Amino acid sequence: MSDQHDPNESGDSGDEARFQPRDGVTETIAVLQTRLPDHHGLLLCLDFDGTLAPIVDDPEAAEITPTNAELVDRLRDAPGIELAVVSGRGLADVRGRVDVDDVTYAGNYGIETDYGDGDIEVHPDAAAAESVVERVRTRLEDELEDEDGVAVEDKRWTTTVHFRRAPDRAEAVTDRVEAVVAEHGDDQLTTASGRAIVEIKPDVETNKGAVVSGFAAEADGYLPMYVGDDVGDRSAFEAIDAAGGVSVYVGDEDIGATATVASPDEVAALLRWIADDGVDYVGGNGAVDETH
Ligand SMILES: [Mg+2]
């Protein structure tokens, strides 16, 4: 039997008979096809760097791919889809880079949240530690001034030290950051390592997992889903697991997620399927014949 699919559905992939998702994408689609009909909607939580935007050497230069930007915009208006962008970046920073309104944004690993109305809520304990974070940041700027390729980023409620451009200095810089935090952090701060970064943040119970759990609790009857690429996303994967949701890891190893996709382009393939077809599988949207 010849392939009768409409070539116009192929999107980016030229005149192949039809868009052919690779394995992780196919796997995720199969899970969503099975599970969405039992839910009122999909709570789709997306990381930014490495997920919607390719990783680049200079974090200031990171940009959402045009396709992902278009798809986030489409999904924002899709029935039965709740969209949240969850990032370690400062909230205003990540919101500016996605640049789609009426979407929930969580920044600084959940210290800051905008539920889509433009107002920013700040975790009270983090707000209380602002001056300590500032003091440590100033100190780090001084101490790391001579380190080529190392940058100290002011995210107001937190600080990130980047060393993607100085990979051989990773351990030494991390040690120095930890020493400064121990000496000047007044026992109010903690550090966490990510991909070529060290985060300095108030020692409060916020991480991406807590953010995703909170969103999932509010979106009753929705299937929670998280897509992310970093060690900072692991708490989110665990939270999604606990909530019975779907986790998609962007990378090249098995970290126990529901499925693994290779790149922000494959994330786009997944988002495109959700926007084109997945919405019809959501229980109550009703366009998929129940005999399927
Ligand atoms: Mg990321």
TrEMBL record:
Top-level division of the source organism's lineage: Archaea
E.C. number: 3.1.3.12
Keywords: Hydrolase, Magnesium, Metal-binding
GO MF: metal ion binding; trehalose-phosphatase activity
InterPro entries named among the record's database cross-references: HAD-like_sf, HAD-SF_hydro_IIB, HAD_sf, OTSB-like, Trehalose_PPase
Pathway: Glycan biosynthesis; trehalose biosynthesis
Catalytic activity from the UniProt record: alpha,alpha-trehalose 6-phosphate + H2O = alpha,alpha-trehalose + phosphate
GO biological process: trehalose biosynthetic process
Function: Removes the phosphate from trehalose 6-phosphate to produce free trehalose.
PANTHER family: TREHALOSE 6-PHOSPHATE PHOSPHATASE
Family, as annotated: Belongs to the trehalose phosphatase family.
Protein name according to UniProt: Trehalose 6-phosphate phosphatase
